[in-house]
C-alpha cells in the first residue's frame, strides 16, 4: 500500500508539471500557420497545428492519469476490504474457542455439583419420610399409652372400691383379682418400656435428622461457594475477553483512522486533480466552441437608428436568432474574443455608422461627401472585441436619412478564442 501511495504522489507531481507545461498565453491564427519569433528570438504564440498537437497529447496524458488514479483507488478499496474481513474472521475464531473452553469447564463442574445435590436431595427425602413415619408411630403409641393409663386408673378405682367393700369378699376371689391386677401392671410396665424404646428411637431419628440438616446446609453452602467461584471465574474471563476485544477494536480503529486519513488525503488530491482536469476541459471546450454569424440587410431608408440584418446567411452556436433579427443586436452567449466585420453599401453621402459594444463605440466609418457622386459607395469596419456574457454588439447609423442597399450591407461575427 505504501508503494502504491508513493506512485500516486509521483503521478500527482507529474500532473502538476503537466499543468505548468500546458499553460499558454494565446494562439495565433495566421494564413501560413507559422510561429513568428519576436525581437528576442522567443515566441509567445503557438501555431494552430502545434496547439492542436499539444492539446491531443495533453488529453491523452490526462486520460492515462485518470485511469491510474481510478486503479489506485480500486486497489486501496480492495486491500481495505480484505484486511477487514480477515480481522473479523480471526476475532470470530478466537471468541468461539474461548466460549467452547469456558462452556466445557463450567459444564463439568456444574454436572458434578448437580449430581451431589441430587444425591443429598434423595437422602433428605428418605430422612423426611422416616421422620414422618416415626412421628406417626409415636402418635399411635402415645394414644395407646393414654388408653392404657386410663384403663389402669379405672382398674385402680375398681380395686379401691373392692377394698372398701367388705361384703364383696364373699362373692369375689380376692386372690384372682390380685393376679389380674398384677397381670395388668406387668402389661402396663411392658407398654411403658415399649414406649420408652420408641421414644429412644424417635430421639435417635431426631438426632439423625438434625445431622442430615447440618450436612445439607453445609452442602448448600459448598454449592453456593462453588457457584460463586464459578461466577467470579466466568466474570474474570468475560472481563479478559472484553479487554482483548476492546484492545483489538482500538487497534482496528487506529488502523481505520490511519487508512481513512490516507483515503481522505487521496480524495482531496483526487478532487484537486479532477477540479484541475475539469478546468482544463472547460478551457478546451471554450477555446474550441464555434460561434459565427453572417446576416444582411433588406435595404431601404433608415433614420438615426440601429441597423437590422434580418437575412441570415450563416449561423452556428447561436440560440436566440429571432431576437437578433428583430433588434439588430448580437448578444454574446459565451465569453471570449470575437472578430467583427461589417459592410454598408449606400447611395447617400455623408453616411456615418458606428460599431458599438453595449453603449460604447468600438469603431466607426463614413462615406465621403462627393458633390458629383451619383453611384453606390461601400465602406466597412473590422475589429476584434473581447466580450463577456450578455454583452451586445450592433451597428448604429448616425445620419438623419440613409439609403442602404440590401445586397451589399452585411454584418459578420465570429468567435476566435
Automatic annotation (TrEMBL):
Xref: InterPro entries: Tumour_necrosis_fac-like_dom (IPR008983)
Coiled-coil segments on the chain, per record: 48-75
Keywords: Coiled coil
Listed name of the protein: C1q domain-containing protein
Annotated organism of origin: Mytilus edulis (Blue mussel)
Amino acid at each position: 500500500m505504501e508503494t502504491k501511495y508513493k506512485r500516486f504522489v509521483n503521478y500527482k507531481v507529474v500532473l502538476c508539471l503537466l499543468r505548468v507545461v500546458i499553460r499558454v498565453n494565446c494562439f495565433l491564427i495566421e494564413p501560413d500557420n507559422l510561429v513568428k519569433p519576436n525581437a528576442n528570438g522567443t515566441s509567445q504564440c503557438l501555431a494552430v497545428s502545434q496547439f492542436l498537437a499539444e492539446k491531443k497529447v495533453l488529453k491523452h496524458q490526462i486520460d492515462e492519469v485518470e485511469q491510474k488514479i481510478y486503479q489506485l483507488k480500486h486497489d486501496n478499496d480492495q486491500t481495505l476490504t480484505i484486511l477487514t474481513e480477515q480481522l473479523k474472521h480471526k476475532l470470530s475464531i478466537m471468541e468461539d474457542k474461548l466460549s467452547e473452553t469456558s462452556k466445557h469447564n463450567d459444564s463439568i463442574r456444574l454436572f458434578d455439583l448437580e449430581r451431589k445435590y441430587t444425591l443429598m436431595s434423595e437422602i433428605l427425602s428418605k430422612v423426611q419420610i422416616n421422620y414422618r413415619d416415626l412421628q406417626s408411630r409415636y402418635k399411635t403409641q402415645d394414644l395407646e399409652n393414654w388408653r392404657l393409663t386410663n384403663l389402669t386408673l379405672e382398674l385402680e378405682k375398681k380395686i379401691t372400691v373392692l377394698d372398701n367393700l367388705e361384703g364383696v369378699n364373699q362373692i369375689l376371689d380376692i386372690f384372682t383379682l390380685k393376679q389380674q391386677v398384677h397381670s395388668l401392671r406387668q402389661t402396663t410396665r411392658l407398654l411403658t418400656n415399649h414406649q420408652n424404646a420408641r421414644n429412644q428411637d424417635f430421639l435417635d431419628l431426631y438426632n439423625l435428622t438434625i445431622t442430615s440438616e447440618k450436612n445439607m446446609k453445609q452442602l448448600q453452602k459448598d454449592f453456593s461457594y462453588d457457584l460463586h467461584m464459578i461466577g467470579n471465574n466466568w466474570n474474570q474471563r468475560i472481563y479478559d475477553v472484553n479487554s482483548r476485544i476492546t484492545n483489538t477494536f482500538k487497534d482496528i480503529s487506529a488502523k481505520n483512522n490511519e487508512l481513512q486519513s490516507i483515503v481522505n488525503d487521496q480524495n482531496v488530491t483526487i478532487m484537486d486533480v479532477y477540479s484541475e482536469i475539469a478546468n482544463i476541459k472547460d478551457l478546451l471546450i471554450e477555446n474550441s466552441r464555434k460561434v459565427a454569424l453572417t446576416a444582411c440587410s433588406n435595404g431601404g431608408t433608415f433614420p438615426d437608428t440601429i441597423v437590422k440584418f434580418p437575412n441570415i446567411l450563416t449561423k452556428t452556436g447561436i440560440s436566440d436568432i429571432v431576437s437578433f433579427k428583430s433588434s439588430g443586436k448580437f448578444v454574446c452567449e459565451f465569453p471570449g474574443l470575437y472578430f467583427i466585420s461589417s459592410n454598408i453599401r449606400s447611395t447617400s453621402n455623408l453616411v456615418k455608422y458606428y460599431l458599438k459594444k453595449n453603449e460604447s463605440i468600438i469603431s466607426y466609418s463614413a462615406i465621403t461627401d462627393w458633390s458629383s457622386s451619383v453611384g453606390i459607395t461601400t465602406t466597412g469596419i473590422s475589429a476584434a472585441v473581447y466580450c463577456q456574457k450578455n454583452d451586445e454588439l450592433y451597428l448604429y447609423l448616425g445620419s438623419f436619412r440613409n439609403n442602404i442597399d440590401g445586397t451589399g450591407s452585411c454584418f459578420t461575427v465570429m468567435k476566435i478564442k
